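Human: Not sure, check this?
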Amino acid sequence: MKKTIITVVGKDTVGIIARVCTYLADNGINIQDISQTIVQEYFNMMMIVDTSHTEKSHGDMADELKALGEEIGVIIKCQREEIFQSMHRI
């Protein structure tokens, strides 16, 4: 399994989760875990996804999700799990 960490942050609006999840489903990317919260009017979501069945490269997926985020008014970032873990070691 190839895991990727996706974070979505921005002002809360209708349809953020739907748009991100539609992109993932359309590209064969399975959500393993998801957490989202709204603090005042700000939306924050973290997802762990399995990218082993997508034909997209990590770079293409990250660029497309970034563009989607700009379209819907949020910031979307993707990191491979191994890089995420390396960056957050104590």
